[in-house]
């Protein structure tokens, strides 16, 4: 799980404000400029690590997703989509680490990882022969190791 932001400065660039405007003042005193809502970049990165969407993050700060994207471009030089793509490796690593830990305790997870990542598969080759005018189903195990000796084993359940 990603580390929750502490609120302390982390060396990330600060977003510059346009004009010194008091956000508590009534709109008639804003002199044509609307005060920018503050977006905590550490919090944005934390939520990106949790796979939050741009709409969810923007909604949390009560800004539009276009505003969030614009602020990220100002701060990091890239929009939300590119930033999320760059941060995506972090969650994949975390998920992979967790899956391997689960595979040590769960045979199902180990089998799934073997099939997906290692290309292992479980195939059964069947062949039907006629023995004393009765068809007999023969199962030939194929484990993908090319060590098949040619012996045919009858199905014990047939």
- Bulk shape: rod-shaped
- Secondary structural class: alpha+beta
N-end to C-end Cα span: 51 Å
Radius of gyration: 30 Å
- Write the element-wise H/E pattern from the N-terminal end onward: HHHHHEEE
Please give the count of helices. Answer: 5
Strand order of the largest sheet: 1-2-3
Q: Let me know the largest β-sheet.
A: 3 strands, antiparallel
Please estimate the helix content: 40-55%
In the predicted model, the low-confidence regions spanning at least 5 consecutive residues are none
Number of domains: 2
Mean pLDDT value: 75
Q: How many extended strands?
A: 3
How much beta, percentage-wise? 5-15%
Short précis:
This protein has 2 domains: 109 residues, no CATH class; 32 residues, no CATH class. It contains 5 helices and 3 strands; from the N terminus they run αααααβββ.
SSE blueprint and pairings:
Layout: H1 41-49, H2 54-61, H3 65-76, H4 80-105, H5 107-117, E1 123-131, E2 134-142, E3 153-154
Antiparallel strand pairs: 1-2, 2-3
What do these coordinates show?
The chain is an alpha+beta fold and 158 residues long. It has two domains: 12-120, no CATH class; 123-154, no CATH class. Helix content is 42%, strand content 13%. The protein has five helices and three strands, in the order H-H-H-H-H-E-E-E. The chain has helices at residues 41-49, 54-61, 65-76, 80-105, 107-117; strands spanning 123-131, 134-142, 153-154. Helix 2 (54-61) packs across helix 3 (65-76) and helix 4 (80-105) packs across helix 5 (107-117). The mean pLDDT is 75.
């Amino acid at each position: 799980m990603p580390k929750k932001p502490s609120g302390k400065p982390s060396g990330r660039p600060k977003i510059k404000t346009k004009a010194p405007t008091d956000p508590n003042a009534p709109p008639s005193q804003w002199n044509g400029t609307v005060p920018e809502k503050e977006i905590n970049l550490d919090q944005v990165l934390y939520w990106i690590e949790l796979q939050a969407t741009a709409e969810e993050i923007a909604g949390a700060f009560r800004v539009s997703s276009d505003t969030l994207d614009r602020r990220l471009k100002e701060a990091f030089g890239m929009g939300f989509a590119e930033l999320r793509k760059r941060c995506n490796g972090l969650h994949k690593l975390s998920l992979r680490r967790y899956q391997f830990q689960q595979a040590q305790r769960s045979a199902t997870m180990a089998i799934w990882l073997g099939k997906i990542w290692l290309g292992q598969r479980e195939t059964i080759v069947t062949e039907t022969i006629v023995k004393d005018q009765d068809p007999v189903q023969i199962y030939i195990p194929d484990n993908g190791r090319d060590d098949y000796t040619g012996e045919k084993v009858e199905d014990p359940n047939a």
